[in-house]
């Protein structure tokens, strides 16, 4: 029988060495339909395969809202037992402050070094040779999602690349459609800008800016084209008056909008709506310009609890999240790729299969969360919000500000 944590921890009749059921509070920002279906797979596995309880701590409003809450709880001495964060640098300071559980023994026992692919995901969990997170998926930002209904209603073919998308926008507008769906959460326009940068400025320029922090390239001619494209995209998104990313995906699902540039978590929404890739919607990697995926995504971190029983349960969850069956069930629902290649994904849809093919080809890039500090990412998001919300903010002025941010980036 499962007991609540306080009981398990304090009861005097616990036999020494016996494992006890623990209530584990797990925070995450997976609240859209597709996300909720995916996280339910984790909860189910944890509840069924261990004697512990998953206590769901969903935080609405997306990562931009959830992360500060998560981090302040950990810093403020009220830590949850496990939390989602993005692969990358978001937990750097928490780890350095000694607040996060070291999972190196779990990683060694489970052979994570041999399993996790790409290895950059485990590198993102590693500080001074110790492993502090359990990577659970690969999410790529590099996709545009196109509504077949919207293009059919407008009497034009579904675009197969960015230029065709731009050329078809007037026909969509005439048919009363929004060419580009874009929500108001700051990370959405910032993420879409990153996708445009890779497709339009090319991978070398993107790497120079995002990895080497080269402000000359950020202020130079290749990036000028990206800012012009973004100004165009801003006009295409002018009538997209939704807030959350999944509301924007819904505009595409219902054919009110032609397209959305969004990470492959959008797939979960198409799936929940019963839509079929290739029939109801098209997904183009790299805006149909270059087939590439970025390999960011989600990892679970486990704040220290100073309670051996909780720690044991935390480690059980960490191991379970990477186990083959859980990887398949979760990632099929989430629209992400598994972090291990030795699992059967025969049930994957066409978009996921395309992602797997690109991953196997090695055409991968790190995610912005891995290359830029949370502070730099925040400054870029602020700039993008201003730029996307103000049609009089010129591409040239925005680029100049962007180059300044990159010059100071860490
Ligand atoms: C996460 C995804 C999530 C998306 C939207 C991203 O940061 O990696 O798992 O679905 O945010 O909430």
Write structural notes for this entry.
With 410 residues, the protein is α/β, with parallel strands linked by helices. 51% of the residues lie in helices and 12% in strands. The strands form 4 sheets. A 5-stranded mixed sheet has the order 2-1-3-12-6, with helices on both faces. It has a 4-stranded mixed sheet with strand order 8-9-7-10, sandwiched between helices. A hairpin with a 2-residue loop joins strand 4 and strand 5. The longest helix is centred in the N-terminal third of the chain and has 17 residues, at 33-49. The structure holds beta-D-glucopyranose.
Provide key terms for this protein.
disordered N terminus; binds beta-D-glucopyranose; D-Maltodextrin-Binding Protein, domain 2; alpha/beta; 5-stranded mixed sheet; 12% strand; 4-stranded mixed sheet; 21 helices; 51% helix
Question: Helix count, per DSSP?
Answer: 21
CATH names the topology of the largest domain as D-Maltodextrin-Binding Protein, domain 2
Helix content percent band:
40-55%
**Mean of all residue-level pLDDT scores:** 94
Structural class estimated from helices and strands: alpha/beta
Distance between the termini: 50 Å
Q: Compute the CA-based radius of gyration.
A: 22 Å
| Cofactors and ligands | beta-D-glucopyranose
CATH architecture of the largest domain, by name, is 3-Layer(aba) Sandwich
CATH superfamily of the largest domain: Periplasmic binding protein-like II
